Amino acid sequence: MAMPSPDYIAVGSVIIDDIVYPDGRTSMAVLGGGGTHAAYGMVFAGERAGLVGLAGRDLPADIRQRLESDFDTAGLAWTNLPQVRAWQIFEWDGTRNEVFRVAVLEPFMIEPLADGDAVAYPSAAGLTLLREPEYVAGWRARYPEAALLWEPTRAFMLSADRERFLQGLPHADIVSPNLLEAQTMYDTADEVEIMRRLLADGVKIAALRMGELGSLVARSGDERAWHIPAIDVAEIVDVTGAGNTYCGGFVVGWGRKRDLALAGCYGAVAASFALEHVGCARIPANLATEWQRRMAEARAGLREVPL
Ligand SMILES: Nc1ncnc2c1ncn2[C@@H]1O[C@H](COP(=O)(O)OP(=O)(O)O)[C@@H](O)[C@H]1O
Ligand SMILES: [Mg+2]
After folding, report:
1. How far, in Å, from the CA of 237 to the mean position of ligand 2?
2. pLDDT in tens, 76-102
């Protein structure tokens, strides 16, 4: 019997990461890619996720098997291009530099186009989109009713790209930048000021991800934001993809409950699972009970912050 079409989908390609830590240790050939991490965030929130993007011809067989068992992969296009691999080089302050190891990158970053003929899962309730601003309108048109979370790609989050950033904003229900990138875009270090500026720029719901400082979420018109603490995990093994995983969790929380603080808690809890693994997190055997426990921790830590 065919599985029902998933309600939540992650748009973004599969990337194989070769991770270099600041002390010189490496983790080679791990499953990565913003879309993949986001899809795990949806899985942690209890959904079967659909993955929409490109995969290369030489994707290792074990990774392909893993994708096919953990997700609905009907939305993945298997291209004849070499699989994208990237060095993820971390610095002590958490800065990450991504260096791609293949010559052909662009199709993985833009396809499938939202106005292409066939997009999988037309009835999705929510999606995460890791794309440059020019592509947000097209995905909105494809999914007029779904909760659309746009995670701006790092590469263009410079103040000089402000006009481009603004172009993507009106089409997303939720915009989730990371603090370092938003600081560059708005030229201020102050996270509350960044929240004000995001909302003034027309963001409907802002979810500002701040690493170990947790996240801030607010809606347009609100006079306060919610601060969601980072969840305590026994050991932080690798922060790669925590933000994407947060986004996957967030869009499920928002799609189900339409409660902002709760959606932020979904994001933080999803991200916490990502921190415990190199590359994409494994689905823990005790997911349901751990999810409940961590949700209780997140909710207990919620604080209001005046805007
Ligand atoms: N170093 C960290 N310690 C604790 N929690 C973290 C850490 N890094 C990320 N997280 C958790 O993951 C969430 C998203 O990660 P974040 O670092 O904000 O995004 P990105 O992956 O874009 O850098 C955070 O809001 C927090 O809950
Ligand atoms: Mg981070």
Report:
1. 13
2. 999 999 999 999 999 998 788 989 999
